[in-house]
Fold each of these.
Amino acid sequence: MKQKKSFFLTLIILVVLILGSVFAYNKLSSERSASNLSSLRLSNSSEESEAPTETDAETEPISETQSASQTEEDSQTESETETVSDTESETELISDTESESQTDSQAQSRSVSQTPPDAGTSSQSSSDSQTASAASAAEESQTEKSQEASPSESQYTLAPDFTVTDAGGNEVSLFSLLGKPAVLNFWNSNCPPCKMEMPDFQEMYEELGEEVSFIMIDTVGAMGETKESGQDYVEEQGFTFPVYYDTSQDAIYTYGIAAFPTTFFISKDGYLIAGAQGMIDKETLQMGIDMILEN
């Protein structure tokens, strides 16, 4: 009788410990998945250029000293110029007296020789100048629009391309699957965290499959995974999102995958916006999707 009581007591303790471990694991996994997501945005060089530096601060006093010295030199130069101007003015008076007799004849010859400016040439020069200015303004406007339209080009890295196969064995490249925001996920049917997060991917695919591409890469060759085992798992679970098979491990090596699962969020222009290593929950998945929809 005592043995039965001790057995049941031990069993109850084991059940409590198992439930507590599962609860703690789920809680830690949830917290970790939220912190897993990280932006892949490059450093902003414009903010660095706007920040003041100590060199600039030291340059200002030196510039003021040079400016004061230059002002003194300019004032001395002006005094010398005034002296020369006085001498030149006296010379001009004498020259004007001698040339009075010749003024009338020169004025007549000038009036005959001078002709009005060519109005056609002036108008053409003005038109050319306006055309050049308009072309320059249009070019600057086009450049600004292109920069505003594609901020990803200067802020993020272009997603590397790779080749995988579909269920029918046909080769498919990543670039051929892009064109709208995409979720790229590396998974494995022998990976428990992968299995835990995949129902959330299926649910999000059903909700946003028209707006976002889901590219689920089965990492064939890793952890004993085969194409057949991956296909069997997908069919058993009833997943309908697109699945591709990395039979040559081109995708794994291209992206340097070191842990499963790993997820990347790619913009419609093909730029890596964010990434997460390890299992993520539905909330974190939604955060990543929101980031690529905004870009």
Amino acid sequence: MILVNYTQVNEDGCVLDEDKDDIPDDKDKCPSNTEEEVSKGVFITGPNLGCPMNSDNDDIPDYLDDCAKNTPLEISKGVTDKGCPIDTDKDEVFDYEDKCPHNSLEEFTEGVYQQGDMKGCPMGTDNDADGVPDDKDECPGTRSDVMVNEHGCAIVEIEEIMKYGDESFLYGKTVLTDKAKLALDIIIKKIDNNFLKNIEVITHTDSFGSLDSNNFISVERANNVAEYLIIYGIARDKISIVGKGEIQPLVSNDTEEGRHKNRRFELIIIKFKRKLP
């Protein structure tokens, strides 16, 4: 059996164009478009040849699309049956740019932010519950159990502790003395890890010995103080160390008493100020 495909032609022998879209029916993927469907144009190339144009690729043909020139960003969260970007919560901020796209009616009765990082979120929103509205909060995400300043940033308290002589290190040694360990034990017991931001360990030597030797000893001493803190419960990532060597004496190194005082370690303890219940 032989199958024959017939192409309809007009009386002049030209292929018919039923929907008058300038695409011959034998090539037209949508040969029966209505006048409305072709009113905004049809595809003139590609797999949809002759079908209603969809300029922004949002699956809404242009003749039905009230927003036919959407960008990829604008259609990224979906479009309505009219081809416009979705506004789920009807707050007049489209979902693709709305940081709070699912507000309830109660949440935006006082309006929503129209620009910035909180665009589309209710006016006065305070996501981190620190008492500072998000639009004025320079430190979003602050813990709710710490006190903040007027900018929404955590308030910290700084405590400086110094131990020298027998309560730090013996001359030329990098090992903590028993008195130093006892002093650190007392300090550690007073530290609440939950509110500790950072501890800086700074160590110093007297001027006996070479500069290089004193720098090396100073760093080793700082490491030993840090390791003691870690062993007894202070988080490693909250500790930083600095070995100053002999360059910052408290007093003259000309006397044994002076050298005794210059041979020291300092702890700078920075902690978040706890919010009162």
